[in-house]
Write a structure and sequence with these properties.
Strand content: 35-45%
Oligomer: single chain
Distance between the termini: 161 Å
Mean pLDDT: 82
Shape: elongated
Low-confidence stretches: 1-11, 29-72
Number of helices: 4
Largest sheet: 6 strands, mixed
Length: 390
């Protein structure tokens, strides 16, 4: 009896162990179903958020790498010392004899500077670093006064071009108490005044503090500078915006600074009444069919301004055999337009021959350009000409 009870107890322990193992296996299976990467049907919504809201989908925009031109940006600074920089404005003053150091950010870049600096390469050094270019000019003089420009370069393979719209520039004065104007190798400079184009008298000063006036040599007088007809800029000189005949003559600039007064180069201004546009000629023959022995007239005409030079040139069939050219040129006033006139050239061919048949070309030319027009003339016999008239 005792043995029977002991057997029953053992079997109860075995069954209990089996139940425990089964429970463990079931829990483990549930945990595997709930692991990340697998969808669980028992997932609960987070507290504080409603489950009926649409989920927001965030789109990651790809980063677009800018082109070489878009990355190229320049900035110009003056190097004052090791690690000491100063951003420059429109103008800068550097004492003569001092060293000028400019740093332009960008890669690659190209510099431009006053002509006298370019001619004296021994004082100038340009070094291109990884992210900037350094311009150094030693033993500076008044002749170095002018505009310094840094251009970013847009390069494709070996082909590089300047990006003028992204350039950075500064006008640098190099003051000297003995020189108020940038030195010039000539005592006289010719300037042509065009009726339709501003003219500049480039009397540039070396100090922004200098006071400058414009003077006429004969009759000796100071020229009025009102800012509208004539203006002054110490970085350019005097500008005559709409030149007229009375502006012509010999002029020069006079600068004053403290007790010093100096005169510039003399400028000889000559006035040219410039046309507004190239001519537009019209050509017409006295007849498109001319009988042998008759006379031919080919007229070429174009409108233009008064006192404006216009030239006519002809090409004609008999030119190849050396037949001489006879032309008559006239100028006819245009009714109701005092400032305009008609220029006319008439090509005369007397006693037409067979060699005169072909194309007649007229070229009208003025200071703005040239344009040509053509017409064709046929030469027929006397008999055929009579039939055509009948």
């Amino acid at each position: 009896m005792h043995l029977l009870k002991l057997s029953v107890s053992k079997w109860s322990l075995v069954l209990s162990a089996l139940f425990v193992c089964a429970a463990i296996f079931e829990l483990d299976a549930n945990e595997q179903k709930m692991t990340p990467g697998r969808t669980s049907t028992l997932k609960k919504p987070k507290l504080g958020r409603t489950t009926n809201k649409r989920q927001r989908v965030e789109m990651v925009k790809p980063k677009i790498k800018p082109s070489a031109a878009a990355q190229t940006k320049t900035s110009l600074t003056q190097v004052l010392g090791r690690g000491v920089f100063k951003k420059v404005g429109e103008t800068l003053s550097v004492q003569t004899g001092d060293t000028l150091s400019l740093r332009c950010r960008g890669k690659p870049v190209q510099w431009s500077f006053p002509p006298l600096v370019e001619e004296d390469e021994g004082r100038l050094m340009i070094v291109q670093q990884e992210r900037f270019s350094l311009l150094t000019l030693v033993n500076t003089t008044v002749a170095d006064t002018g505009e310094y420009t840094c251009y970013p370069m847009n390069c494709e393979d070996r082909d590089c071009r300047r990006e003028y719209n992204k350039a950075t520039n500064v006008f640098i004065f190099f003051p000297d108490p003995r020189e108020l104007f940038i030195p010039s190798s000539s005592h006289y400079e010719m300037i042509q005044l065009r009726s339709n184009w501003p003219a500049v008298l480039p009397c540039q000063v070396t100090s922004p503090e200098a006071k400058v006036t414009l003077h006429r040599e004969f009759p000796p007088e100071e020229v009025a500078v009102d800012g509208t007809e004539i203006s002054f800029n110490n970085r350019k000189g005097f500008t005559i915006y709409r030149p007229q005949p009375h502006h012509a003559g010999v002029l020069q600039c006079v600068a004053n600074l403290g007790n010093l007064m100096q005169s510039s180069t003399k400028y000889i201004l000559s006035y040219v009444n410039y046309p507004m546009a190239p001519p537009v000629p019209v050509i017409q023959a006295s007849s498109s069919s001319v009988a042998v022995g008759d006379n031919l007239r080919v007229t070429c005409a174009a409108l233009g301004e008064r006192d404006v030079y216009m030239e006519f040139n002809w090409e004609y069939p008999a030119q190849q055999i050396g037949r001489p050219l006879y032309t008559e040129e006239t100028m006819i006033p245009v009714s109701g337009e005092a400032s305009r006139q008609q220029f006319q050239s008439v090509l005369q061919v007397d006693e037409v021959r067979d060699v005169d048949q072909g194309t007649y070309t007229c070229t009208a030319q003025n200071l703005q350009g040239a344009k040509l027009v053509s017409t064709t003339v046929k030469v027929v016999s006397k008999v055929k000409a009579k039939k055509l008239r009948v």
